[in-house]
Amino acid sequence: MNTLLYGNESYLLNQALNDLLNNRLGADFAMNTVVYDASVQPFSLQAALDDADTLPMFSDHKVVVIKNAVFLTKSKSLTKDEIDSLTRFLNQERPESTLVFMHDNDNIDTNKAYVKELKKHAEVIRVKKLDTRNFRDEVQRLIKEKGLRMTRPAFETLIFRLDENLANAHQEIEKLEIYGRHMDVEDIEALVSRPLDNEVFHLVNAIMDKDMKRAFSIWTDMMVLNMEPLSFVGLIASQLRLMYQVALLNKEGYHREEMINLLSVSTPTINVGRVNRMLALSRKTNPDRILEVLNHLASLDQKSKMGLVDKRFGFELFLIEAMI
To answer: Distance between CA 280 and CA 264 in Å, rounded?
Structure first.
């Protein structure tokens, strides 16, 4: 049976794909699995459908996987010919093959007719991100599995730096296993990087709160990590633009899922978690103030690129001006 596999936790998504391949093909699934990436051009849906229509060579079954199926979202659509081909494919039984549509996000556009058709004729597997409590439990399980020990403050520091990213948790804990068995806060701070997106969020939060001390503390930490000021400007601007859009949509009465569908056109990585964080931030201010801070950023960006102001000094001046 064909499968739609999607969700906003990449580690669990890949795990679900591996389970599916093991189910359909057994442990030696590599020889009868073909993978296409819809986000890399040139990508041909017709080629993937033709591949799934071809008999397997080394077993009784084959699996064709289309990763990054962005055509299932609002950001991209299929042509009429592609929709016709897909519809014909979905309406025919093919016991010798499975076609997997895989998308690493929650922003599937269920209003599209061909997405409805796909959900009607396919097994739908939606992978959900772990909530905070379950994420902490999973990290504790991994630490115990690896035979590691750490102080409670070290564990809390690790949790903060993992930013509820399960794939990152597995990578970082494997790295900690190589380092040693007993760890304190200093070990975690030295070995596990702080999540940049999280730092940007906290800086924007400090700006909205007009908390200059906290903002400069975060900025100083970024300087220690050799963060390029103009790169940081771009990240902050991206967060502020998203916050502005969320604030306006919230004011107009849109629900979270509706926001995700609308915003996914310009922000493919949007998900419930990001919308919730932006909603929390936007409630601390108003759209006019967000635009004001964006204007300060645009001015800094222009002056820095023209060489009219030192990049670091200009950014620090921006922080002061944004909180007046």
So the answer is: 19
Could you tell me if 232 and 315 are in contact, meaning their C-beta atoms sit under 8 angstroms apart?
yes
DSSP letter (8 states) at residue 34: E
- Single-letter amino acid, residue 304: S
Q: DSSP letter string over 227-266? A: --HHHHHHHHHHHHHHHHHHHHHHHTT--HHHHHHHHTTT
pLDDT digits (tens, 9 = 90+) for 190-203: 888 777 777 888 88
Classify residue 211 by burial, with Cβ atoms within 10 Å: 0-12, 13-18, 19+. Answer: middle
Q: Which amino acid is at 87?
A: T
> How many other C-beta atoms are found inside a 10 Å radius of the C-beta of residue 290?
25
Check whether the bond before 42 is cis (ω within 30° of 0).
Answer: yes
Sign of CA dihedral 112, 115, 117, 120: negative
The band of 4, judged by pLDDT with boundaries at 50, 70 and 90, is very high
Contacts of 219 (CB under 8 A, 6+ apart): 203, 315, 316, 319
**Are the C-beta atoms of 207 and 294 separated by less than 8 Å?**
no
Helices (H), the chain: 10-25, 45-53, 80-90, 113-121, 132-145, 152-162, 166-179, 185-191, 196-209, 212-224, 229-251, 256-263, 272-282, 287-305, 311-322
Apex 138 CA angle, 132 and 141, nearest 5: 145
Give φ, ψ of 69 to 5 degrees. -75, 70
Indicate yes or no: pTM above 0.70: no
Whether the Cβ atoms of residue 290 and residue 244 lie closer than 8 Å to each other: yes
How far is 300 from 318, CA to CA, in rounded Å? 7
- Using the CB atoms, write b or e for 144-158: b if 16+ within 10 Å: eeeebebeeebbebb
